[in-house]
Design brief:
Blueprint lengths: L7 E5 L4 H5 L2 H10 L4 E6 L4 H4 L7 E4 L9 H12 L5 E4 L4 H9 L4 E5 L10 E3 L9 H7 L19 H13 L8 E5 L11 H15 L2 E4 L6 H9 L6 E2 L6 H10 L2 E5 L2 H8 L4 E4 L17 E3 L22 H4 L3 H11 L4
Parallel strand pairs: 1-2, 1-4, 2-3, 4-5, 5-6, 7-8, 7-10, 8-9, 10-11, 11-12
């Protein structure tokens, strides 16, 4: 591989929020190794905010693939836009065919992706997509640097909520009389996939128990799509809870998560935001398993799950349980989650 120090590099990651967060260590490693290169990242508009103000990134290109730019004509327009920027290298953590096709049609000469990518025939460098216990998606993403001769394995995150978002958090905490000495636990009851969501009535029971037995202050977090799940949790509770689901931007969510003493969460983007800020996590995994590589990266973080022969039922979960029993979530008891919280917080 030729000297890359002044090259133009494009990282294509148009997957979900969590996937974008898990791409940040790759971005940071590139910047450390190639400080003079031009680094651009192509993402969807829904996640742009999580990368804005990152000093490692020179340019963010938006691809609204789920809305305004769903058509093949829109893809052609994007191809022309990317081609005009004369990138030398494309790195593709996202394994979709469209990502590979974009890099190919934009005539980026070096196209690096995984051998398991749907469009791997369009790549010029293929990296083995490793699977197995203790192989995280972060590690796999860093593997994509090997064709460039980069061996940097340092895991560094950069999530900067900014002063306005921090002020929002301080204002919310003051409004609800939450003080520095309070035990503040977040609940994230949402997820893109319905089968990844722990039942709302169980989340409610966990929250009630945390309030009564640990004197915790509970904040429900999530995006606009999580408002319904959050409402079901609050409706099932006996104790008072602060519900901020759907009321925060990504920057505000990042700042709010940073204040938490612990986050109880489904397998979701919010989980990865917490881990990236070294916030303790208790994650509830149903259809997905830790072996898929998207478990919370914190050394002492806990995954609560049940060992069933039907797990995992897919890399993302799904819209419905193929067994029609949702056993992977229903078998996880309130005590399982409550005791995991106590263990993670070192409470006897």
């Amino acid at each position: 591989m030729k000297n890359l120090k002044n090259d133009r590099i494009l990282i294509i990651q148009t997957a979900f929020l969590g996937d974008v967060v898990l791409t940040i260590p790759l971005i940071m490693a590139l910047r450390r190794t190639l400080p003079k290169s031009h680094l651009a990242v192509l993402v969807t508009p829904q996640v742009k905010e999580i990368l804005s103000d990152n000093p490692a990134i020179d340019e963010i290109i938006i691809f609204d693939k789920k809305d305004k730019e769903r058509s093949w004509g829109a893809l052609g327009h994007l191809v022309r836009k990317v081609k005009a920027r004369h990138f030398d290298v494309a790195i593709l953590p996202h394994r979709s065919f469209k990502s590979s096709l974009l890099a190919f049609l934009a005539q980026i000469p070096v196209r690096i992706g995984f051998n398991k990518s749907e469009g791997n025939v369009l790549l010029t460098r293929k990296v083995s997509y490793r699977r197995g216990p203790h192989i995280h998606e972060i590690d796999r993403n860093l593997d994509l640097l090997s064709p460039l001769g980069i061996q940097d394995r340092q895991v560094e995150f950069y999530l900067n909520p900014g002063r306005p978002a921090i002020n929002y958090t301080l204002g919310m905490l003051g409004k609800f009389q939450i003080y520095a000495t309070d035990l503040v636990i977040g609940l994230n009851p949402g997820s893109v996939w319905p089968t990844k969501r722990y039942p709302a009535e169980k989340f409610a029971a966990v929250a009630d128990r945390l309030i009564k037995e640990l004197n915790a202050k509970i904040i429900i977090i999530g995006g606009a799509a999580d408002k319904e799940a959050a409402a079901r949790v609050t409706a099932g509770m006996n104790e008072s809870v602060i519900n901020l689901a759907g009321q925060t931007t990504l920057k505000q969510l990042t700042a709010l998560t940073k204040r938490l003493n612990l986050l109880i969460t489904n397998d979701s983007g919010a989980m990865h935001i917490a881990v990236a800020q070294q916030v303790p996590v208790v994650a509830i995994f149903g259809p997905t398993t830790a072996d898929l590589g998207f478990y919370p990266y914190g050394e002492q973080d806990i995954v609560v799950e049940k060992d069933l022969p039907c797990r995992p039922c897919g890399k993302h979960g799904g819209n419905r349980c193929s067994k029609n029993n949702f056993a992977c979530m229903k078998l996880i008891t309130v005590s399982d989650v409550f005791n995991a919280v106590k263990k993670r917080l070192n409470i006897k």
